[in-house]
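May I ask for an example protein's residues together with how it folds?

___
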Amino acid sequence: MFRIYHNPRCSTSRQALETLQATGRPVEVIEYLRSPPPREVLRDLIRSAGLTVREALRPKEPVYESLGLADISLTDEQLLDAIERHPVLLNRPFVVTDKGVRLCRPFERIQDVL
């Protein structure tokens, strides 16, 4: 089974979901803005994708600036706190398959886990 942490308003996320569905395999869709993953799941997703917590953030979100998240002295725990309070800060889409986890941005990274 594939899993995607999905935002239906995001064209990259929609494209990733369509690609996963086209394989014919079951896809678990987690709309992370409605059902944010627990902190340990977030931490594991980010680590498994080979990213730092900072690399998993969306700096273009207005809340990123308003919370001062560009401050490089902030710890991973502080950044995870921000993501938990404001799930829109998590970049998307994260895709999980038996081949691994990827943040599929740019979209072509999905090929690494198909």
